[in-house]
Amino acid sequence: MKIRTQFPHKVDEVEYLWIPLPDGTRLCARLWAPSDALAEPAPAIIDCIPYRLTDGTCVRDAAMYPYWAGFGYACLRLDLRGSGDSDGILLDEYTPQEQQDICDAIAWIAQQPWCTGVVGMTGISWGGFNSLQVAARRPPALKAIITLMSTDDRYADDVHYKGGCVSALDMLPWGASMLHYQALPPHPAVVGERWRELWLERLERDYDWTEIWLSHQRRDAYWKQGSVCEDYAAITAAVYAIGGWVDGYTDSIMRLLQGLPGPRKGLIGPWSHAWPEQVTPGPAIGFLQEALRWWDHWLKGIDTGIMDEPMLRVWMQDFVEPAPVIAEQPGRWVAEDVWPSSRPVEMEYSLNAGTLDAAPAPETCVEHLGAQLTGLDAGAWCAEGAPGDWARDQRRDDGLSVTWDSSPLAEPVEILGHPEVSLTLACDRPNALLCVRLCDVAPTGLSKLVTRNLLNLTHRDGHEHPAPLEPGTRYTVKVVLDSIAHRFPAGHKLRVAVSTTYWPWAWPSPEPVTLSAFTGGHSKLMLPVRPPRPEDGLLLPFAEPEEAPALDMEVTGAGSGGSRVILDKDTDVSTLEFRWIDGGLVTIPKYGIETEDHVTYYYTVREGDPLSAQVKAVGASDLRRGADLDVHIESVCVMRSDLENFYLSSEIKVLDGGREFFSRSWEKTIPRDLV
């Protein structure tokens, strides 16, 4: 990583800027702007998230936004209403209130004397979501966005549901994390004397958002709000959508390129859920320079050539053996001028008696009883670069699934897009799910996950109106796997693996399910094969990563994070322990802040007993700032189920200056709705 110290503009920082909203609420922001912005106004770039600009993202912000400011932009990081040092209460993610607040903030920013009246918006994850959502509201000043690791469909591609299955992996952990995070106080030095009053008000309204999400198990109006796929034509601003192959949100990029009517580009690297200039796996790119080309084109009217380049650029991944961490993913950049491309050729394989063949064989039937431990080698849905985020060798999960293998490939095969699996099946229960995986099997027998997806079979005809299965009745279902670019080497085999369990990606069906899979006939695999494109070799290379000088920061005593599986052979109980945050003491001298955070998730299930499934999230945080602030927070959240209901329990305890300031516990029962 190169640190740039010379910029065309000197940059001034306004540490705390208050943005007034029409209802009297004030949003707290930090501003970096060219020193001469009052004489020569600059376009603005905003990032609006709830992750606390004073102590949460301050190090990241200081490396990114002064960089663009140095090239002539006024950059603002805003705390959302009810978060960090802003006024108000935050009651859920991606609300209409949040979107309107940002539109109002954009209007205010555009009228400031240091702004040209032109605004861009960016963000990763939450900030990527609301960049799309705000663009769909068409605030007049907003001309372009860069959305990273986000989605156009809140139900299909987020931490709550996948294929209509409840995400055991992420739903409760994310709800618990926000419960914990929202319990942190505003800073007295920023908010003033009313900080305790505001803090207590937030604590009394704080709760586990899992309750909301689990109350909407179908794709209803709750999820449609904020899902820009409902009306792509609403977005007229230019959109640059960026993602990574081991991030959880990549499918949205393909849909956005296909659905948006206006200027758009897509970029998919091998990356995890992180900014592309500092990311695992590499190769990292000079994202700040790439973004600057986008901003210069759309916010300053400078022809940088970025819109003359292909619409979609992706990292075509080569085979590499599974490992706890893959620091560098081998492959190469490839591109398509438009998406959907007319170039991919569909290659079809028939699922026969244990084999993948060019032609269907006579029908056979194989029965499969799902094992609750299937999925322990799945890795993360949304990798963040921690040890254990990557899927492991799939042979254990393959052995607990129904599998079909091709013959060794005579020559390499490259795919780009969505593989699809059609399967004719019957189940012995009215409520069942499928996990379908595509693997790359090496001559040694090692099985590497390429892509996968889940399908709640009660959602076989759509996510809005599920219907129970009729036990014993045949159905033909299509599972569209997550988009991917992958090169299968010559001599390797393709493998399709199907299971009725996938813990902890999917909350188990209420009862053990026996699947009858009928091979031949309509059961098949369709691969989006991408023919070679000579123009790929002419693609301009990305710049090397660089950023502005970062804030001084000291970290002591940090753990390594990551996951491990604990299997009790006497009871057949497995526990996947994932240390999401295993931080040491972080000191940020500029702001006089000390923080320490530890968050661990536990996923437990007993073989043969789907009702034993339980997810537990445990968090502890410390925040100190001089003599004004000394806070300790502990939280514990648990999710479990029986045949008819889900059960949530949450508790939180807050200490102020070593003394208990607030504590609360909750219990919620939510009926199962065909999951």
How is this structure best described in words?
There is one protein chain. The chain contains eleven helices and 36 strands. The protein is mostly beta strands and 675 residues long. It has three domains: 2-164 and 217-336, Rossmann fold; 165-216 and 552-675, no CATH class; 345-532, Jelly Rolls (Sandwich). The strands form seven sheets. The chain has a ten-stranded mixed β-sheet with strand order 2-3-5-4-6-7-10-11-12-13, sandwiched between helices. Strands 28, 29, 30, 31, 32, 33, 34, 35 and 36 form a nine-stranded antiparallel β-sheet that branches. The chain is globular, with a radius of gyration of 25 Å. It starts with a strand and ends with a strand.
Query: How many strands, what sense, and barrel or not for the largest sheet?
Result: 10 strands, mixed
Count of DSSP-assigned helices: 11
Shape by Cα distribution: globular
How many beta-strand segments?
36
Instruction: Let me know the average pLDDT.
Output: 96
Query: Which class of secondary structure composition applies to the elements?
Result: mainly beta
The termini sit apart by 46 Å
CATH topology of the largest domain: Rossmann fold
Strand proportion: 35-45%
* Name of the top-level CATH class of the largest domain: Alpha Beta
Instruction: Quickly count the domains.
Output: 3
Report the radius of gyration as a whole number of Å. 25 Å
- Output the strand order for the largest sheet: 2-3-5-4-6-7-10-11-12-13
Q: Name the CATH superfamily classification of the largest domain.
A: Alpha/Beta hydrolase fold, catalytic domain
Q: Stretches where pLDDT falls below 50 for ≥5 residues?
A: none
Helix content: 10-25%
CATH architecture of the largest domain: 3-Layer(aba) Sandwich
